[in-house]
Task: structure prediction
Amino acid sequence: MCTVVVSIDPSAEIPLIVVGVRDEFTARPWVPPARHWPQSRPGLIGGCDLLGGGTWLAVDPGARRVGALLNGLGVLAPEETRRSRGDLALLAAAGDRPTEGELGHYDPFHLLRADPGGARLWHWDGITLKRDDLPPGTHVIVNSGWERGEENERVAFFRPLFAGAGRPSKLDGPWDEWRELATGAGISSEDPRTMIVHHELPDGRTFGSGSVTLLALAPGGVRYDFTADPRDPGAFREILTE
Result:
């Protein structure tokens, strides 16, 4: 996942809205959100990466909590002891995080754990672990981290659009404006501001945005929408509303 938008408004009926765009090599196998971990994490719902067995985003509907993962920049873990970072989103959704002794097994990452009460973000660069508590407002996290300035063109373009989007008062309310923004607002993949990417690489592989998640968490419930057609705002399907 290469872009996560986190909208926090403690006074709203829906205090937390999260948009997650997953970017990956298109040949990497995965399956859409479901309860893929009935033995180890029976309460969690998320898409499953079939190579690592983990996920890029998971939700615990009962706890009203989400965990989301982005790859970071920094020092890679030793190949002989490296673990899949897909474990981390599961840990966060379950209300946990890796211990200090485990961090050295993971390549750099940014890890979000959020619920209607607030959001926390951990950053691991392969050497140092840092933590941020996100304040009320609209925030954008990319592979370089929590971008608060205007230097990143994607963030500078999309952050005010998400901040200005109408916030539904009900989980089953109208989400058309959010769906339009979450699927890239019609910006071409060649535009440096784009949130939905597509790259044909010289070695024949393709790297691009493969799915989009739109998630709303309130004290009384969860709304979880998902699409594997990241440029079509009409292609979202409802995974969960409860």
Notes: The first strand starts at residue 3 and ends at 8. The first helix runs from residue 86 to 93.
